[in-house]
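Researcher: If convenient, please comment on what follows.
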Amino acid sequence: MNVSVIIPAAGASKRFGNKTKKIFQQIKGSPVFVRAVELFASRDDVCQVQLVVAEEDMETMRTRYAANLGFMGVKLVPGGPERTDSVRNALAKVLPEADFVCVHDAVRPCVSAVWIDRVFAAAERTGAAILACPLHGTLKEVDANDRIAATLDRRGLWEAQTPQVFRKDVLVRAYASAAASATDDAALVEALGEPVTVVRGDPRNVKITTPGDLALAAAVVNTLPRPKPKAPAGPFDEAKW
């Protein structure tokens, strides 16, 4: 399984409410985007990592973070006005040897390697898979006056997360057929009529949207599950050969 990873990081951070964009905010000494990138850069099944950034952030990336990106072998790609445009720009540069494409938000820095293993395996088996979590709270539809308009049935409702992983040809067709922007890549694949498998994620896979999310990410980052270490090879037993 050869996977090309696309990490969109070109958002304007309008909802974050801080002069410094959320991708550059620190979580225990590391920028948010660096934590997201390093989740994939050292994997044996990843053949390429592309970080998609806004034009105004290119110089910062090339100067302040050149050592980080160079060490991890990350390529910079200019972003577009919408997330869909940014992913499309990177999709055009995916290596020929990649069988699958993984898209992961730069503002999700708390993904465990265990969860990545699971969604990669599901995508390899089915062709398309995403992390997601079932919704547990009571859902209210609210009108323009901040009044409850309806209480919604949450049965069967899941919140999509990233990583989202697809066979390369499927994602290329999805973007070629896209008539409008989408907030995630699975929606474009669904529009083709292609099935997408859901892999149960975890609420600790925090998406940084507000300053409060930074504190939450810092609190959970050390609680994430880790892969079990591989058992060391035992002594050679001639009797088995």
Notes: The chain has one domain: 3-225. The mean pLDDT is 91.
